[in-house]
Design a protein that fits this description.
With about 220 residues, this protein is an alpha+beta fold. It has a single domain, classed as Glutaredoxin (3-Layer(aba) Sandwich). Helix content is about 55%, strand content about 10%. The protein is built from 9 helices and 5 strands, in the order H-E-E-H-E-H-H-H-H-H-E-E-H-H. It has a 5-stranded mixed beta sheet with strand order 1-5-4-2-3. Helix 3 crosses helix 7. The longest helix is centred in the C-terminal third of the chain and has 20 residues. It is globular. The N and C termini lie far apart (about 50 Å).
Length: about 220
């Protein structure tokens, strides 16, 4: 009888775990709620999704193909943008490059090239000079790049990134922020979904994100 009871308990646990994701994600297991929801860009019916990432992050690089395909599939359902987590504090060189390219409206165009530089060509960007050289080698006018790189706007955003990341409660990458309210990412679900490969884990993150987007829509 005890064995039967244990079997029934195990079945109940597995069944409920299966129901929990991805269509009905559970807070704390599949996603996190931000303690103080953050303001979002006025998007109308669209839902804002932000990816916190780092150029040097292997998990971000492996997540990128699935993420891009997912964003393209979403179409007008979402507004998607990126933020670079400042791994090395307020003077993080990678975040500085991201913000400069973003100011020049070149980040989307060059994002894949930077990931390739890090993860395929195995070069690194650790100094300001590394960033300048990379920019010039990729066709950006040096004077234009330096003007943006040293601008008050970019420097202010760079020094504010730590506070911004803290306000979103983001501590690992890649992490998706849905409507300034919810966090989803491999680092959040890996403990409760052990045994899944990287691709399956990334796919599950996006399915959970779909469910959270629908959750947001139901409240608008």
């Amino acid at each position: 009888m005890r064995a039967i009871n244990l079997a029934l308990i195990s079945f109940w646990f597995i069944a409920n775990l299966a129901r929990a994701t991805p269509d009905n994600p559970v807070e704390g297991q599949d996603y996190k709620a931000i303690a103080t929801p953050q303001a979002v860009i006025a998007t109308g019916k669209k839902v804002e999704v932000i990816e916190f990432f780092m150029y040097h992050c292997p998990a971000c690089n492996s997540f990128e193909p699935q993420l891009l395909a997912w964003v393209n599939k979403q179409g007008d359902n979402i507004v998607f943008r990126r933020m670079h987590l400042p791994h090395n504090g307020k003077d993080d060189v990678e975040a500085h490059l991201f913000l400069t390219l973003d100011a020049l409206k070149l980040e989307d165009k060059l994002h894949a090239k930077i990931l390739q530089y890090w993860h395929v060509e195995h070069h690194q960007l650790h100094t300001d000079q590394d960033n300048i050289d990379w920019a010039v080698n990729n066709g950006i006018d040096k004077t234009q790049f330096l003007e943006a790189y040293t601008s008050f706007s970019v420097m202010t955003k760079l020094h504010d990134l730590l506070r911004l990341a803290a306000s979103y409660q983001v501590s690992s990458t890649p992490t998706l922020v849905i409507d300034g309210r919810y966090l989803a990412g491999p680092g959040i679900i890996q403990d409760s979904h052990q045994g899944l490969g990287v691709e399956a884990l990334d796919n599950l993150v996006l399915q959970i994100t779909d469910a959270l987007i629908e959750k947001v829509r139901s409240t608008k």
